[in-house]
Amino acid sequence: MFDPVIAPSGTLLGLLQRGRGDGTLHALTAPRAEALAALNHCVLRDPRHDWQVENRSLYYARLYLDLNGELDAIEAHLFDAEDVLDTDESRTGLALAVLGHLASYGRRDALELLRRYAAHGSNWAWALDELALRDDDAGLRALAAPVLARFATDPEGEAELAVAVRDAFEPRPWRLWAEDPRESIATRVRAAQETGCFDRWQRQMRPTGPRPGWSVRAVFEWAQQGIERGAALHVPAARCLVAVAGPEDRPEILQAARNGIDGARCTALRYLADSDDPAALDLIEAAVADGPTVVVEAAVDAFERMRSIAAVDRARGWAQRPDVIGAAAGRVLACRGGAQDSDLVLGALREAVRGEGPDAPTLWTLVDGTGRLGIACAAPVLRHIYRETASSHLRGRAARALAATDSSFAAGFAVECLWDCEETTREIAARHAETGDARVVERLRRLATDPAEEDEVQTAVRSRFGPDAQAM
């Protein structure tokens, strides 16, 4: 999927794309037509950089409810001719997930759209998973015939059906259909279930990885084979070395870490770092200096996993280096450094924002470390990251860090976080938001009674209303 174009953070569209709480608050005060147009834009053009981990569906569904929004735009998107040409689930997944939440809230039009799409749409499996959680047995049974009609009755079609049954995220519809009174349906589904179980058993009986009795050299060769076919196997290979390598194999492993072929070198560096070998840090530094990209990345990753005092001391010496190992050192200190490392972590945070912007991958660790160390003077940088990042997960981490470093958080960002798209961010807000703002108490009460809200958020809300809570 291509990277989405994110509007500026000060616009209604930009706020909604980011999933910020202020997006909902602004949408509720904007002209309804403008708010719905921005909302539809987000749902039909998924704004997430990583749609598999970032949450937006419940956030957008709640806003549809608050705006009493029609679903015409979603319907047109789902049943557009492009649905046949572009079958990538990322094109329709967010819209289907939003419909699923709306169905949970009792929107009958959303439920009917999901049923129609499950019967006729390209991304039918996603729609069926949404219905498996929300529809009744009668509604699911009515879909058995149109879904099975997608699969031919020849051997190839039956094999495809078996894969669909085996890989279904929600098994409820298939279990219902296996007990369907129509013999033609029940027989096909039961046969597909049996084939799927047999396929899993066969895969378990034909492992392709290392075997007991493998030598160190064999493990290195297996790791290299992975690189040659585009699969990074040095991490599992390093775990294999733990089982097969003895003290007598250390010279061979050290040699591989110095100048072995890529697969062997990556594996050896990971193994030596995980075992806190005294030579690991020097070998990692050498690999960063002269290794190809795959080796450099493996070396940096291995270094960041080290938890020894020696690794932290070396990080202090490397933290100001203008290269990847310097950036990694900043992250190591963010995770495992002490109060004396605050300046180095803050410097790394500022440099990352200045050089790579508010969505730099390195910020995740640095932001966490800033909060862990309680670096109060980092609050302005954290606020900038909070406002500008397109990643709702990074924004949540920034909110957590601000709660630990910024005295204005409870009366500021914590209030809008109650409407954030990420449940972890709403949980932080529920624990910190000051209740002098009337909107806060009203929102906390709504979250406490919303059946779609996560348990952790509702627990945090109850802690504010319980007998031991501070007065609202």
How would you characterize the overall build of this protein?
Helices cover 69% and strands 0% of the residues. The chain is mainly α and 472 residues long. Helix 21 packs across helix 22. The longest helix has 23 residues. The two termini are 46 Å apart. 42% of the residues are buried.
- Main β-sheet description: none
Please state the overall shape, judged from the principal axes of the Cα atoms. flat
| Uncertain parts | none
Tell me what portion of residues adopts beta-strand conformation: under 5%
Key words describing this protein structure:
472 residues, mainly alpha, 30 helices
Helix-strand layout with pairing:
Layout: H1 12-18, H2 21-29, H3 32-44, H4 57-67, H5 72-78, H6 82-85, H7 89-104, H8 108-120, H9 124-134, H10 137-141, H11 144-148, H12 155-166, H13 172-178, H14 183-205, H15 216-228, H16 234-244, H17 250-259, H18 262-274, H19 280-290, H20 293-305, H21 309-318, H22 324-336, H23 342-356, H24 363-373, H25 379-388, H26 392-405, H27 413-417, H28 423-432, H29 438-449, H30 455-465
Helix pairs in contact: 1-2, 1-3, 2-3, 3-4, 4-7, 7-8, 7-9, 8-9, 12-14, 13-14, 15-16, 15-18, 16-18, 17-18, 18-20, 19-20, 20-22, 21-22, 22-23, 22-24, 23-24, 24-26, 25-26, 26-28, 28-30, 29-30
In a nutshell, what does this entry contain?
Helix content is 69%, strand content 0%. It has helices spanning 12-18, 21-29, 32-44, 57-67, 72-78, 82-85, 89-104, 108-120, 124-134, 137-141, 144-148, 155-166, 172-178, 183-205, 216-228, 234-244, 250-259, 262-274, 280-290, 293-305, 309-318, 324-336, 342-356, 363-373, 379-388, 392-405, 413-417, 423-432, 438-449, 455-465. The chain is flat.
